[in-house]
Write a structure and sequence with these properties.
Rossmann fold; alpha/beta
Length: about 230
């Protein structure tokens, strides 16, 4: 069976949708089949930037969420990305518990991966503590340290939670810093990272030549992190 990547973090503004978009572009670049789901009705970043692969799911509708598992059951090579909006964890947790998803996934061979996207603030650390308390090693966790939202993670280091997470099998990736203006120009296009890097009209491209090179390097670093943990 396939693999489901829940890209969460619960707190708004930590960069969940950015990580989801990077994962989508990575899977496209690696020619890996995937389906994407967006839970954010107001912003729907995956639906906007990767419309050919994404659709909307309603977190408060059980049958809508069921589509996530159905997509993962297509084949053992199929990946599913779920971009979780802020404050969706309670509804998602009810669905997981009521459906006994952890047990079902183990029985049918679906891998469940929870991405905890973190900024450098205290809230992300406390949410990680809650995540570890809840699942206690029953769910594969990836800590995505988003340097776009803070380059020093001293609070995480001081909390003692990182060794605890790693003892539970958690993996750590870093989303390296990209110039804010470059990110703004990419977002303004409303298109995929690939489209931003390969403009149809170079004379009117949103990114300059050197800027595209820096973005390409940034994307390669992200893909290298994803390859390292075996997305």
């Amino acid at each position: 069976m396939g693999r489901i990547h829940f890209i969460g973090g619960e707190k708004g503004g930590v960069g969940k949708s950015l990580v989801a978009r990077l994962l989508a572009q990575h899977l496209i670049d690696r020619n890996l089949p995937f389906t994407a789901f967006d839970t954010d009705r107001s912003h729907a970043s995956l639906l906007r930037y990767y419309a050919d692969f994404a659709s909307l799911v309603e977190v408060d509708e059980v049958t809508s969420l069921d589509r996530i598992v159905d997509a993962a059951a297509r084949s053992e090579e199929h990946r599913v990305l779920v971009d979780l909006a802020a404050q969706t964890t309670p509804a998602l947790s009810r669905w997981v518990d009521d459906s006994q998803l952890l047990d079902l996934a183990h029985e049918v061979g679906i891998s469940l991966v929870w991405w905890h996207v973190m900024d450098a603030g205290r809230d992300s650390v406390e949410l990680l503590r809650q995540l570890l308390d809840r699942f206690q090693g029953r769910l594969q966790i990836v800590l995505a340290l988003n340097e776009m939202r803070g380059e020093r993670f001293d609070l995480l280091d001081e909390s003692g939670l990182l060794p605890r997470a790693e003892q539970c099998g958690a993996k750590v990736v870093r989303i390296h810093k990209l110039n804010d203006e470059s990110m703004r120009r990419i977002d303004a296009q409303g298109a995929s990272f690939w489209a931003a890097m390969n403009p149809a009209d170079a004379a009117h491209a949103a990114l300059g030549l050197l800027e595209r090179r820096r973005v390409r390097t940034w994307l390669e670093k992200a893909s290298s992190e994803f390859d390292r943990i075996g997305v």
